[in-house]
Write a structure and sequence with these properties.
elongated; 2 domains; Alpha-Beta Plaits; alpha+beta; Aminopeptidase
Length: 387
């Protein structure tokens, strides 16, 4: 397929800005889902919505649309509808050759840059045809533990493999390894007492929490493993009461699943030891939000991605990431899926941006993926490699 025209690039940028203006924090995806549905139906496409909204605690279900190709082969393109929480209105403006939010808050390029690219690919394919079939998957609640993709029935997909455009690094990076991710919560139960009259009768839940946090592994544990305490709370808002309750929320990630489990075990041991030393009780929760994976460098999906990137002037670079994406959930379901860097910058931050060159470059890469997939010999890609 030919590279994007100037008219297509202009429409891509317009679509991107329009999508960014629609608030869609996880749990509140309905408005942006309806907008995407309307755009796809205006192209003459049928759109199905699954029942993931309830179990994923989302504002809508996952959306799936299909476009016929000139061959029997089909490729999946995937992006998520939701963003992280929005703390300021979003008004996209172009500054120094890139889109930014005029206000002090996220732009929403994660993942609306990918949404805009997929919609422009769909427009081209519905007008001029495509060398392969295309399945377009728009997921919900990605920013809340990949819940939408986790509740998507991947068995209905007809594609051999797919691509997620959801890594905020320079175009050319191909994610071939992603971590297992665990979330740990702890609620400490102490005993309230007057802090100035009877402190010895109290049992400070905050003291227990502090000891736990100080003993837990945190930061970069090794090149494959990280851990973090992201939230703490407790007390009653007054200094004259020994705190009866305190809570923490933490996480651990690793490309190596054994290291992830070992780090979680160390965190839980630290919590239990701290509770015991402060003579408090503690309730601990632990959930694996998603499983890690490793892609075989020789897999058809990776080969197609690297060929497409080279054809568009980018040098492919295989990377392992500490972040998760819908590719984790799809891989866990047995569907081969590669996460590609989309050129966005500083996702989840008030200074988030995406250059015009990166946004338009990803459109050319997405179009090139279809050509390279069509040229791929008929082979059985096999199951994804275990993490």
């Amino acid at each position: 397929m030919r590279p994007a025209s100037e008219a297509e690039k202009a429409r891509l940028n317009e679509t991107f800005a329009e999508l960014c203006r629609i608030p869609s924090p996880f749990g509140d995806e309905r408005a942006v889902a309806d907008d995407v549905i309307a755009r796809l139906r205006a192209m003459g496409l049928e759109v199905s919505e699954d029942d993931a909204a309830g179990p994923a605690e989302a504002g809508a279900g996952n959306l799936l649309a299909r476009i016929r190709g000139r061959s029997e082969r089909s490729v999946l393109l995937c992006a998520h509808l939701d963003t992280v929480e929005q703390t300021a209105p979003i008004e996209p403006v172009v500054v120094d050759g890139g889109w930014e939010n005029e206000h002090d808050g996220i732009l929403g390029a994660d993942n609306k840059a990918a949404l805009a690219v997929m919609l422009e690919v769909a427009r081209r394919a519905t007008v001029e045809g495509s060398p392969v079939g295309i399945e377009l998957l728009f997921t919900v609640a990605e920013e809340n533990g990949l819940r939408g993709a986790a509740h998507f029935d991947a068995s209905q997909l007809r594609s051999e493999f797919g691509y997620v455009f959801d890594h905020a690094t320079p175009i050319g990076e191909v994610v071939t390894a992603s971590p297992s991710y665990y979330r740990v919560g702890a609620e400490f139960h102490g005993r309230a007492a007057h802090a100035g009259i009877r402190p010895e009768e109290g049992r400070s839940a905050i003291l227990a929490l502090a000891r736990a946090v100080s003993a837990m592994p945190q930061g970069r544990i090794d090149p494959e493993t990280t851990a973090n305490v992201g939230s703490v709370s407790g007390g009653v808002g007054s200094t004259n009461v020994v705190a009866e309750r305190a809570r923490l929320l933490a996480e651990a990630r690793s490309i190596d699943p054994d290291k992830a489990e070992s780090t979680v075990s160390r965190m839980i041991d630290a919590i239990n030891d701290a509770a015991a030393s402060a003579e408090c009780d503690v309730d601990i929760t632990m959930h694996r939000l998603f499983a890690g994976y490793r892609q075989k460098p020789s897999s058809p999906a990776v080969a197609v991605a690297e060929a497409a990137l080279r054809g568009c002037g980018y040098e492919p670079k295989r990377i392992a990431t500490g972040g998760g994406s819908d590719a984790n959930a799809l891989e866990l379901s047995g569907f081969p899926c590669v996460n590609l860097a989309n050129g966005t910058e500083r996702n989840h931050e008030p200074t988030e941006r995406v250059s015009l060159a990166a946004l338009e470059g990803m459109l050319d890469v997405a179009l090139a993926l279809l050509d390279e997939a069509a040229a791929l010999p008929d082979t059985d890609p096999g199951p994804p490699a275990a993490a």
